[in-house]
Amino acid sequence: MAARKKPGRVTIRTVAADAGVSVAAVSKVLRDAYGVSAELRSKVNASVAKLGYRPHAAARGMRGQTYTLGVLFPDMRNPFFTDILAGINAALERTQYQALLGISQSMAVIETALAEAMIDRQMDGIIVVGPRLRRDDVADIVGKIPTVFVGHHQPDATAYDTVNNDDQMGAMLVVRHLAETGRRNIAFLSLARADLDDTVVTAQREIGYRRAMAECGLERQINILQAEQSAREVQAAVRHLLSSRNKPDAVFCWTDFIALEVLSAARELMLSVPRDLAVVGYDNTAYCDLAQNALTSVDQSGQVLGLQAARLLVERIKGRDKAEHFLVNPRLVVRASSQHIA
Amino acid sequence: MAARKKPGRVTIRTVAADAGVSVAAVSKVLRDAYGVSAELRSKVNASVAKLGYRPHAAARGMRGQTYTLGVLFPDMRNPFFTDILAGINAALERTQYQALLGISQSMAVIETALAEAMIDRQMDGIIVVGPRLRRDDVADIVGKIPTVFVGHHQPDATAYDTVNNDDQMGAMLVVRHLAETGRRNIAFLSLARADLDDTVVTAQREIGYRRAMAECGLERQINILQAEQSAREVQAAVRHLLSSRNKPDAVFCWTDFIALEVLSAARELMLSVPRDLAVVGYDNTAYCDLAQNALTSVDQSGQVLGLQAARLLVERIKGRDKAEHFLVNPRLVVRASSQHIA
DNA sequence: CTGAAAGCGCTTACAG
DNA sequence: CTGAAAGCGCTTACAG
After folding, report:
1. Which residue in A33, A165, A253, A257 has its CB near the most CB atoms, within 10 A?
2. Model pTM?
3. CA torsion, points A254, A257, A260, A264, in degrees to nearest 10?
4. Angle at which helices B256-268 and B231-243 pack, to 10 degrees?
5. What secondary structure letter does DSSP report for B323?
6. pLDDT (tens digit, 9 = 90+) per residue, A100-120?
7. Chain D: nucleotides under 7 Å from a protein CB?
8. Dihedral angle over CA of B198, B199, B205, B209, nearest 10
């Protein structure tokens, strides 16, 4: 509808004419390609500044790079993702790359569609956080575009990089802490998933939970509940758990928001936290610090994860083809919700 | 670095050859352009499906549309934005358009840079939520790309559309509710902003707050505090407020997260909510419902805002040039944090 | 209704 | 070190 041909448009050709050099020379300066003299470079840069030239990303996309990286998050709700994004942006700050986001609303079909959309748009690479992709979709996507997964445990993968916190260890830190402070009936509230392969973070946390429970001699108390991420489902699961005959004296939740729901349900059921019930979350988001929550949680350094993911992706775009798998150690942050029982 | 020329790439030319028609014909079918027979259309569609053809967005961007819409949010922290995004996605579901996000981290320079990046990438239009842009940047951007602002009050703007909830009315609902339930020292905790023009939502809420205070005969109790969005700043402001000599008996916060900080500070200062202090937020996010918060808040129907914004943007891209300004009515949701004092 | 051809703004071998 | 030319995959007048 809109007229495309803007008469005043400044293109690489305008710049070349102004600087008195060839179009190819301008292109090289713009991309910091090798083989241009300092003199030519400064002439071009002067013209670029003077004319306010901005490269046309679509045209670049047809030939070379778009300097655009896609970042896929399952949702916008989890404040932990803010930290990851901050890390990504920090890593990209002094580069030509620009990150653009897609939010899949935790649905595998949307996630796949978004990844395809990013491929169609010739993005140079993508970072997928907490992937919900099916296994063959993963294979398909990583074959088409450089990919880094955050929160996807596959340390033997060769076709893509991964960045993770050690989710097994995180869960073990929690269980040990709870056991040491006198809890025995420690339940784990996990995320419901159709396919339960071990790559997902919740599965890793389950494994860590089981291992630590065994280690503490509590294997008979192992109690895993799964719930969707919707408020209604979580509430039902929590109510069920807290009203059951062998009521737990501690609940470890796979993510903070679920733990906040547990705190809410406990209050409604007149249970005192931490006296009757210890509650622990994961991610150490900003909400943990609020006095009404005072939630013990596991910090997984979202910023570091994001930073590493961006760094690895740029390396991969620049040609590295040997996979790298980065692991960061989690750290337990104890607050009142799991305080020692006197 | 990567070899561009993928030999097996399916282009519009491959499809044309397979269907036995011209490249131009395929292009027309793809864009639902006029002037193609049903027979040709079905031949082309069959080949598209058979070959798994996907249009190359960068190539499209060089000539026509990219079918990509940019959505700019100030941050990922506010769960209210999730609702707006859900509305946008719902509106776009059956269309060819794809929304891609940028997060400005509440910084005007990043917001400007992201808008420019989206323009460089030939996006067809952008939705800017809670803009922090300077006035001349707004003029510059709307001149280059169809734009809809959400949370930017400028009902006389002709160059772009706006979608808002009636922030003045929202604030008035809150003040009236608090006054009716016996509060008098009602403070307003607003966002610090360098330039205080009336277009921003917090300024509108301030106006509504002042109007309702006057209406209730409380103009001498008007008390506005401003704080940055950082946890530390908010805590300092809240402590200052709650420890001051003429301590308020109610605090109205410009957004829920700030109100949660107030609840936290009140608890640390041994103030009982709602007995000693009523607390009210804005946005009615999921956290309000948790029993430990039970936060009264103003619902502004984020989904509706997002839906309208996407609808208006697509209309504008398709050629409408008369500005539209959509306003939705806010609704007060009363919870325990502002309950009647006996 | 259908198609041949020009051209969008870049990058990339390649020749000089 | 520098530049002329081909070409990326589409869309758009335009002619038939």
Report:
1. A253
2. 0.92
3. -110
4. 50
5. -
6. 999 998 889 999 999 999 999
7. 1-5, 7-13
8. 20
